């Protein structure tokens, strides 16, 4: 959806329009979940992070700067919620929630079309093997087409740090998947953009 339409939805949401929120959720869910699925390993944790992202979206509407592109703002929310999840000490107690989750019906969160739409399973598995920091940079760069400078802004780290994580991530992917030189990786990425 176009950024102007998203901005109109955000304006309605600021006025308390819950239908606009549902429309926004439907329009952004697959993109957000695909990103979260690469950054958070367990299904139940993904659900929790997704809930936090959309709750944060609703509560931080007043802070949205209309000069900032909508998706950049949204991906900032995603990254912050994933980082918050990673540092919470209560994660060790999650095992009890997971045991209870096994007794419930399968959730719609892990539909194959959401997880694998537009991705190759082998690449997906290789991305999962990267460190959290490398994986975050690779996902933001290749799946959301952010520049390294924009990623540095999203992660609130120096550009040099992003470049280091990016190159280390690419090197690991080349080793695990293709054994290709860096220029071939860029060609593959360009092809993927042209043939979604």
UniProtKB/TrEMBL annotation:
Q: Please name one Pfam family that this protein belongs to.
A: Sigma70_r4
Task: Tell me which residues make up the RNA polymerase sigma-70 region domain.
Answer: 25-91, 127-175
Tell me the keywords, alphabetical order: DNA-binding, Sigma factor, Transcription, Transcription regulation
A biological-process GO annotation:
DNA-templated transcription initiation
Q: Which domain of life is it from?
A: Bacteria
Which GO terms of the molecular function aspect are on file? DNA binding; sigma factor activity
Q: Give a yes or no for keyword Transcription regulation in this entry.
A: yes
Check the record and name the InterPro entries matching this protein. Answer: RNA_pol_sigma-70-like, RNA_pol_sigma-70_dom, RNA_pol_sigma70_r2, RNA_pol_sigma70_r4, RNA_pol_sigma_r2, RNA_pol_sigma_r3/r4-like, WH-like_DNA-bd_sf
- Similarity annotation: Belongs to the sigma-70 factor family. ECF subfamily.
- What is the protein name for this chain? Sigma-70 family RNA polymerase sigma factor
Q: Which organism is it from?
A: Paenibacillus foliorum
